[in-house]
Amino acid sequence: MDEQFFIDLKDKLFDFLWSIGPTVIKAIVALVLGVLIIRLLKGLLKKFLRKANTELSLRSFVESLTTFILYGLLFAVVGIILGIETTSFIAMFGGAAIAVGLALQGSLANFAGGVLILVFKPFRVGDLIHVNGTLGYVEKIDILYTRLKTFDGRIITMPNGNVANSDVDNRTMNDGRRMDVNILVDLSQDVDEVRTILLKAMSDLPGVLKYPEPDVWLDGIEEYSLKITARSWVKSVDFWPLYWEQLENVKKALDANGIEIALPKREVFYPEGKPSSK
């Protein structure tokens, strides 16, 4: 190859870079400005949602969805600046959307599940729920996933599609919640006496609501015991601490009054009298 070939190649490369240089610079500037504008809009949106006292779950969802839409528009603008025709870009975007949709059917189901959760509100951020075998407080509801924080500090992330299609036990949706304590006492115990002891033990516990009033019932006669059910109402947010205190109060009250917890018993009869100890 002669020297002229490299000179021509260099000139053509220089002309090409010179021709596309301004377009590339415009695209880069648009990209940088777009990112800054998106950050500014996200900050304004957060302030607006906070001042409007929007629910935490809806706030998180709207912020995530808005970020996705804004960045999609930004990439569209950059593509148009680079010379991609609008019709071509729409066709390309549509084809890519179809391909991505087929590849991410689960994610689309999660997105739809997130919308259903926010529309029908089976739970909100801060609620204590039991779903798919997990009990925990709702930390965040995103466009695709819901995060729960368990009592032992674990963070469980669940797809919204699975959550929306599952039975959700919301344990803090109502202000009040009933505590049930089941006790087995000996068959020889007096039911009225046990009822009086348990009612006092439950009523003396701070945090137990006066209405509905605590109640105690004989819930069954078992083979070797009486099944007693003691019930009281507390605020939902105080349920677990008071439940444990309630158990302690009941046990101490029974011990103090000589009420014994039932133990399995069997009577053995010998047809020819008691056997010799020899």
TrEMBL record:
<dbReference type="InterPro" id="IPR011066">
    <property type="entry name" value="MscS_channel_C_sf"/>
</dbReference>
<dbReference type="InterPro" id="IPR045275">
    <property type="entry name" value="MscS_archaea/bacteria_type"/>
</dbReference>
<dbReference type="InterPro" id="IPR049278">
    <property type="entry name" value="MS_channel_C"/>
</dbReference>
<feature type="domain" description="Mechanosensitive ion channel MscS C-terminal">
    <location>
        <begin position="181"/>
        <end position="261"/>
    </location>
</feature>
<dbReference type="Pfam" id="PF21082">
    <property type="entry name" value="MS_channel_3rd"/>
</dbReference>
<keyword id="KW-0472">Membrane</keyword>
<feature type="transmembrane region" description="Helical">
    <location>
        <begin position="90"/>
        <end position="120"/>
    </location>
</feature>
<keyword id="KW-1133">Transmembrane helix</keyword>
<dbReference type="InterPro" id="IPR006685">
    <property type="entry name" value="MscS_channel_2nd"/>
</dbReference>
<protein>
    <submittedName>
        <fullName>Mechanosensitive ion channel family protein</fullName>
    </submittedName>
</protein>
<feature type="transmembrane region" description="Helical">
    <location>
        <begin position="20"/>
        <end position="41"/>
    </location>
</feature>
<feature type="domain" description="Mechanosensitive ion channel MscS">
    <location>
        <begin position="107"/>
        <end position="171"/>
    </location>
</feature>
<dbReference type="Pfam" id="PF00924">
    <property type="entry name" value="MS_channel_2nd"/>
</dbReference>
<comment type="similarity">
    <text>Belongs to the MscS (TC 1.A.23) family.</text>
</comment>
<keyword id="KW-1003">Cell membrane</keyword>
<dbReference type="Pfam" id="PF05552">
    <property type="entry name" value="MS_channel_1st_1"/>
</dbReference>
<dbReference type="GO" id="GO:0005886">
    <property type="term" value="C:plasma membrane"/>
</dbReference>
<feature type="transmembrane region" description="Helical">
    <location>
        <begin position="61"/>
        <end position="84"/>
    </location>
</feature>
<dbReference type="GO" id="GO:0008381">
    <property type="term" value="F:mechanosensitive monoatomic ion channel activity"/>
</dbReference>
<dbReference type="InterPro" id="IPR011014">
    <property type="entry name" value="MscS_channel_TM-2"/>
</dbReference>
<keyword id="KW-0812">Transmembrane</keyword>
<dbReference type="InterPro" id="IPR010920">
    <property type="entry name" value="LSM_dom_sf"/>
</dbReference>
<dbReference type="InterPro" id="IPR008910">
    <property type="entry name" value="MSC_TM_helix"/>
</dbReference>
<dbReference type="InterPro" id="IPR023408">
    <property type="entry name" value="MscS_beta-dom_sf"/>
</dbReference>
